[in-house]
Amino acid sequence: MRVLLSQHPEIRRLKRQYIPSAHGNKLWTSSWLLMEYFRRRGLPEGSRVMEVGCGWGLAGIYCAKKHGALVTGVDIDPEVLPFMRLHGEINGVKMEFLKRSFNGLYRQHLKGVDVLIGADICFWDKMVHHLKRLILRAQQSDVRLVLIADPGRAPFEKIGEHFIANGTGKIMDWTTQRPRRIQGRLMEISL
Ligand SMILES: C[S@@+](CC[C@H](N)C(=O)[O-])C[C@H]1O[C@@H](n2cnc3c(N)ncnc32)[C@H](O)[C@@H]1O
What we know:
single chain, alpha/beta, 7-stranded mixed β-sheet, 7 helices, binds S-adenosylmethionine
């Protein structure tokens, strides 16, 4: 996987033009946990993956590059798109983009999606309700797997508790050694 750091001239050039406003201004570390999950567990070739709160979209790009997935990145903030496009280009893959909030993703968008992923997307209390509802809509739309990675913030744990209680989810401690040692939590929710 090729990732450009904030100091890279291309990133600096984009940052002069585009200003992501909801923390989509860099690659967050939980994306590496999702990549490690797919490296270990695999992903059927051609899977349809939706990455919500995608930011620079690296976890989705990984699925496209390493597993031939068809990926759509979703973010409330269109200013992240040039950063996602650039990373798609340097990794030789294309991702679709949808400008939508968690709340604005309806069954029509989720239909046909196999796997819904998100990294570092549960950081405000108000997100608990919105993400819970999104995951429920995904389940009703036959999305077979939802995976959310996080350092283990309280809103993330709260969402996990809900899906553990209804018997569809579990939360695992997860570690990757690439690109360096990163520890976090992974929520795995199945149909
Ligand atoms: C902390 S960043 C994580 C970005 C990326 N997933 C990563 O790991 O590098 C959170 C992302 O979620 C997006 N976001 C925040 N609130 C959102 C919402 N309600 N609906 C959709 N996306 C949202 C932000 O624009 C931002 O790109």
